[in-house]
Design a protein that fits this description.
Chains A, B, C, D: Its main location: cytoplasm. Chains A, B, C, D: Catalyzes the NADPH-dependent reduction of N-acetyl-5-glutamyl phosphate to yield N-acetyl-L-glutamate 5-semialdehyde. Chains A, B, C, D: Pathway: Amino-acid biosynthesis; L-arginine biosynthesis; N(2)-acetyl-L-ornithine from L-glutamate: step 3/4. The structure is a homotetramer. Chain A is of the alpha/beta class. Helix content of chain A is 32%, strand content 21%. Chain A is built from 12 helices and 14 strands. In chain A, the strands form 2 sheets. A 7-stranded parallel β-sheet of chain A has the order 3-2-1-4-5-7-6, sandwiched between helices. At the A-B interface, β8, β9, β10, β11 and β13 of A face β8, β9, β10, β11 and β13 of B.
Chain lengths: 342, 342, 342, 342
């Protein structure tokens, strides 16, 4: 079988680096182009010395040229910009896997509410398939445009959706409290992200109206079968490079027990390669998913307050971004879903 | 004025080290004994090289001998053991400042529920004053036995008590989600605490029935003026040495606004030296309280879910343990409350 | 081609974990046994939750039983113990790849000098091939017993051997100053290794007579073609999980230039997959080799003191231990040398 | 006694923050002005929330206005700029304590060699006293202009000077290999300093011709009583916030023994408050000097190579910058040398 020819747009950030780490050892994919406006003309090793020897050079993002030689494009671009590239790529027949937030919301109104601008191509929102394979695998098999699930959303939706769908928890009063490593902020050169500011520092931010909130609510509502949900999502920055821990509090519905939760998870994820359900009462730990495409989930039930307490960890750059994009691509092109990811 | 003569019992852990750091430069206190069964006979510098030159040697914890030459005893002992020492010290007229959890709960039944043993001296529970100066300053002036507030409780009670007392938030459905540095586990030599297990790791633990839960609930209920409260308290271990961040979600009561929250905080803490209220909508950051006795508090109101969201940070070893003990001692002995702490 | 059947002895430490990380995705190898006295009977996921789902259970290290079903044994055992296992495994025809220090020194006298006991099987020292593929690839192809190069030695020998062999540097007055992440100490539960003791701490240790010293000197002397060498090797512990940086100072020989150094390195390593020579004057950085089997080398020449200054980084658990063992095994069994390692 | 009135120029970086941490609790000093072009008009808490409540506002660096109301000026400015301010301050009779490198070299030619520009006021080089109290205490008592010793130099000169002066080590062939925390780079917003680039990264830099090299050589030569020295100085960046470890290799002179080294150190530093000599053969550890003004020194003698190996640690922001400036100021104004520093 010939290899899937992949172009990576916006390859000079941390998601781009992680994509290259995965794709360069992917048995069925070949990187045919990596773009970076800033680094065009430079070998990949100038930006990422770890890839010295890889025969790759950053190029200008000339969509037509690149579209002519690739089957798949993975967009690791800032939101807003991703749409600009997606449109001509789709027209050229290239399958598009977008890591940005541009196509994740189904509602253009919600997009405007949270991003403060009109969505640049609202007609694409309905076409896009949400890139969370454990929830949308069938649709992904034939998708032209995949809106890869965000990092915080992946860590929030995977552990909650089956419980909401099984009515073991109530769709009201949910709180998601997350801690992310600093690569979650991208490769951003700004005072709050320099080492001495982050090390020995842990702090909440964006506690009201974070842009990942509507994405989480949308997918939780789909799972719960309700038109709308309102939750609290509270992200924190923690002094580590990678990974996210999400601790989620939900009101147990009548009849909810630890055993039932375990059964529902087993049914939902028992056959999944990239979801690991811990034995009851244990808590997930970021260190066990670092540099893997796995989501690890622990669950507990507090009789004192009748809350279901779920802990869920992912590597923000792998399952939360680049690994997930490759997993979606593998599905779309009929490859082994885990190719390149183990 | 002659100096307060202080004995530190159990001085070889992190709280002990922090006590020495503070007391050795305290203008009105003098360390007259430091005890450690394991290190008796060794100079302080054997355990803590940073105190090389300080003329202190660990001694056996012979209570009678030590009681005869000190005015105050600070107990940095494991819970259970603290009571054993407190009883004879109190009999000898020494003022006791206990950093353990032995005297924090008013209810012996709660103690048994969470610690699984009968309280060894339940009659002392009523006598003990809770060592949180911003809440109990007047009682502390005459206390013989001070049960210094715990680290997680300090970070949880300071930001919530005024809001509960002012009825700006409801006393139901409160969730406290905390992240602590690893010194919070004490100077414990155990696999989960070695560097490679903690670094790049963030995980919840004790999510149901943590021993700090009844202490937090007791003080929140006192503040709210209700007989009992049931909250969720979810601690996490984060890859840093010191400090705690507590992010707290509460249901706003009718009429609650950001302005009113600000006013209530101003009234409660405007004159406090060791509480810093941030401007509305900002979040606290552990790095700004590290190695200080300050509690920094940020507050926000989410109109989407009508939740008050408070972030609160302390240094677990200072305001969460040793600094607080010294603050209480300063009050008890009529010293400048901030002596040795700034 | 049938897969190489591999047994891992002493699989519950960090080198064991890294071996499993590599071998579980190795296309031509199959793990048939993992031993651990302490964890015998437990599934691998009890010790390493990241391997949940891998159908592996720790067993007692019964050599005969295990030898009967494996082609290769990788020993991740404490030194001293490794020999005990190696002897019967070799008798049973199993190829042995030892990660410990037991067979690295050619001289039993040196072993005794540094390990303070007689070598338990000095006759094996001559048989063992030193497991540093870039130096001993040909001998490795037929070796029965491979003494995988140590972590500090790998980072020291790779950058110096070609320069010594080409007489660009003098074999006298060499200083190797290294900094290692904390996994270098193994999964050791001891006070100096708990997080709060290591974080924000950097310190030298074993500055005189470290056990890796004779190994480094032996291989440098072989390269230089001199009977004996005496160097300084100064290790440090740094607050990170993985990797080693070795900074090496050597006296430039007459006629040594940056260009010649570059040429010698190109000749020695130009075709090596796992050695990356940086452009002249740049310094190596541990972050670019973390979780890879690569050794990155930078070089410089100080006209002020006529010293060649080389910086060299590896991942101590990969190229410094488990990755190197697998690389050696790949060579021995005629596999692609990089199988499982990229 | 009235307090020394201090102005801090360039107070918005890490050295400035550390100066404020020290000076705000200094019993005999008062901060009368803090300057920052960028933050002029803003309260100190805007830049450093930890100082909320301190009645300080950044002002424009108007030298004449500020000179009129202060006794001492501490310059935490970039090199080059410091001279511009020092000249008018000195004219106005203000004692100047410069933390930059502007006045540390006695030779304008060396300055030009390493800084690539002519020194802006070479006539001041002779006037400046080198701000390392343990070496120049007497001159500091009457100095008008103090060139506070640099961070790497302090950690290198204190352990070597007495040994060189006593001829226990040779003045040739010395290598200083140092590792610094990231605050050593200042509060610099640049890609190499963001958290994900520094964490889990250790790397050398500036291995040839670092600007601290001539300063170290100058002071070593003074101590050795030789006209010139040429050493190697190899700095590294380590993943921690504060502190420096310098490991120094020197050739032992004839008759050098551990005992003699110990005696020489005792004579040099036995009465020093801020130098701690460890027992022979132990190594210094940065964690024991963090946030203190202490330099900790360990020493060893390697009979194998006849090298004296010294390890030396300081907090780069305290003894390596701001603490040292305050120590110098205390000496100059006849205060307790440790005022504000313990």
């Amino acid at each position: 079988m010939s290899k899937v020819r992949v172009a990576v747009f916006g390859a000079s950030g941390y998601a781009g680096e992680e994509l290259l780490r995965i794709l360069l050892r992917h048995p069925n994919a070949e990187v045919v182009a990596i773009t970076s406006r800033k680094n065009a003309g430079e070998p990949v090793s100038t930006v990422f010395p770890r890839f010295t020897g890889a025969p790759l050079t950053f190029v200008e993002p000339k969509v037509d040229e690149i579209a002519a030689k690739c089957d798949a494009a993975i967009l690791a671009l800032p939101h807003g910009l991703a749409t600009e590239y997606a449109i001509p790529l789709l027209k050229a027949g290239v399958k598009v896997f977008d890591i940005s937030a541009d196509f994740r919301l189904k509602s253009a109104a919600k997009y405007k509410e949270y991003y403060k601008v009109d969505h640049p191509a609202p007609e694409l929102l309905a076409k896009a398939v949400y890139g969370l394979p454990e929830r949308y695998r069938d649709q992904l098999r034939t998708a032209d445009l995949v809106a890869c699930a965000g990092c915080y959303p992946t860590s929030s939706i995977l552990p909650t959706a089956p419980l909401l769908a099984a009515k073991l928890v109530k769709p009201t009063g949910i709180a998601v409290v997350s801690c992310s490593g600093v690569t979650g902020a991208g490769r951003k050169v700004d005072l709050p992200y320099i080492f001495p500011e982050c090390n020995e520092s842990l702090k909440a931010y964006g506690v009201v109206g974070h842009r990942h909130l509507p994405e989480i609510e949308q997918e939780m509502a789909f799972a719960a079968g309700v038109p709308e949900m309102a939750i609290n999502f509270i992200p924190h920055l923690a002094p580590m490079n990678r990974c996210i821990n999400s601790t989620i509090l939900m009101d147990a519905a009548d009849g909810c027990t630890l055993e039932k939760i375990g059964e529902v998870y087993e049914q939902a994820y028992g056959k999944e390669q990239f979801v690991r359900i811990l034995p009851a009462k244990r808590c997930a730990d970021t260190k066990y998913v670092s540099m893997t495409n796995t989501c690890e989930i622990g669950y507990n039930l507090d009789p004192h307050t009748n809350k279901v307490i779920v802990t869920s960890v992912i590597d923000n750059l792998t399952k939360g971004a680049s690994g997930q994009a490759v997993q979606c691509m593998n599905i779309r092109f009929g490859l082994d879903e885990a190719a390149g990811l183990i």
